[in-house]
Design goal:
The chain has a 6-stranded mixed beta sheet with strand order 3-4-2-1-11-10, with no helix packed on it. Helix content is 30%, strand content 23%. Helix 1 runs antiparallel to helix 3, helix 1 runs parallel beside helix 4 and helix 3 runs antiparallel to helix 4. It has 343 residues and is α+β, with helices and mostly antiparallel strands. The longest helix is centred in the first third of the chain and has 19 residues. It has 2 domains: 79 residues, no CATH class; 220 residues, Deoxyribonuclease I, Chain A, CATH 3.60.10.
Length: 343
């Protein structure tokens, strides 16, 4: 080993670091700095591949050790990413069988509060003409700028904030109830809405934009609250659509727990990650904007929209509900308000 070149030692060292980080990422801990490693799984695979090629070309003796370390790191990360590759089994048929169902177009977008190119988002709403709109990071300026488009919706619920966690919800479907509560954190609204299609099919919409995990902080409380936010919907219907900027990747333990606790399926599984962030580099980016469904909610189409000046790309979907499936739950005049984090 003493005869290895400096380039070989560099490749071995980088491979060892990537393997160590991959192993640490499997540690079942709530430490934020460890949980954040979920965000770099996909870029780590690309980095390992690039280092591996360079090692094979230039490292000389010792390259086999470097490549072995890099393959080990990539295998660990790929195992976690596997459900979101094209080789994995799909959780939701796409397009699903929706004959005879009532369908609605959905637009979910983190607009980026500091983004002042309001017209591009306005044009997107005009072009897509969604039946359900969820906009995040919206302050008063955004609300005023989009007034011409939002005014066309029969129902609107708005909570403009200047802390990058404002939210706007608008729909042309009938609304049995809708509210925004601070369940995940103070001044961080979560949307709960029970909607009714023209033929009477009911389903609930959960709109989430929780704060991200941070180094030095435990994620235990955050994970539990996010999971509860999806599982304990006010009307407790079986038909639920969950959307929003989760500030998390779908293969993380947090989002995995959200799916399992609430009984959700992910239409992206088996089709790729549908990365939405950062908008100008999604090839190496992350799928922070989520869409999940359960029971009678079907997905006819799912797409990533164009760049509108935000650091996120829009998530576009067409979802359908079986009119024969009322989703069970409580009567429309009942009221269950999730425990809030305070105002």
């Amino acid at each position: 080993m003493k005869d290895y070149s400096g380039r070989a030692w560099i490749a071995i060292g980088l491979g060892a670091v990537l393997l160590l980080l991959s192993l640490v990422s499997l540690w079942p801990t709530n430490r934020g700095i460890v949980r954040m490693l979920d965000f770099v799984r996909e870029p780590s695979i690309y980095l390992a591949a690039a280092i591996g090629v360079l090692a094979l070309l230039f490292a000389g003796r010792g390259r086999a050790i470097a490549v072995l370390l890099l393959v080990g790191a990539s295998a660990i990360n790929l195992a976690r990413l596997w459900p979101y590759t094209f080789l994995a089994a799909a959780q939701v048929p796409l397009p699903d069988e929706v004959d005879g169902m009532s369908c609605a177009k959905v637009l979910s977008l983190n607009v980026l509060q500091s983004n002042d190119r309001y017209q591009r988002t306005a044009d997107l709403i005009e072009q897509v003409d969604p039946d359900i709109v969820l906009l995040m990071e919206t302050n008063r300026q955004w609300l005023d700028a989009l007034e011409p488009q939002l005014s066309r919706y029969g129902y609107r619920l708005e909570r403009p904030l200047d802390n990058t966690y404002g939210m706007i919800f608008a729909t042309r479907l009938d609304v049995d109830r809708a509210e925004m509560v601070s369940i995940t954190d103070r001044n961080t609204p979560t949307l709960y809405a029970t909607l009714r299609t023209a033929d009477g099919a009911r389903f609930e919409v959960v709109g989430l934009h929780p704060r991200p995990p941070l180094p030095g902080q435990s994620t235990a409380r955050r994970d539990a609250i996010i999971a509860r936010a999806g599982a304990e919907t006010p009307d407790r219907l079986g038909n639920v659509l969950a959307i929003g900027d989760f500030n998390d990747v779908p293969w993380s333990r947090t989002t995995e727990n959200f799916r399992e606790t609430g009984g959700y399926l992910d239409p992206r599984a088996g089709r790729g990650s549908y990365a939405t962030f950062p908008a100008n580099l999604v090839t190496l980016g992350w799928p922070l904007d989520q869409i999940m469904v359960k029971e009678g909610v079907k997905v006819e189409s799912l797409d990533i929209g164009p760049d509108v000046g935000s650091d996120h790309l829009p998530l576009l979907a067409k979802v359908c509900v079986d009119p024969m499936s009322q989703g069970g739950g409580l009567p429309a005049d009942a009221r269950i308000v999730p425990e809030t984090g305070g105002e």
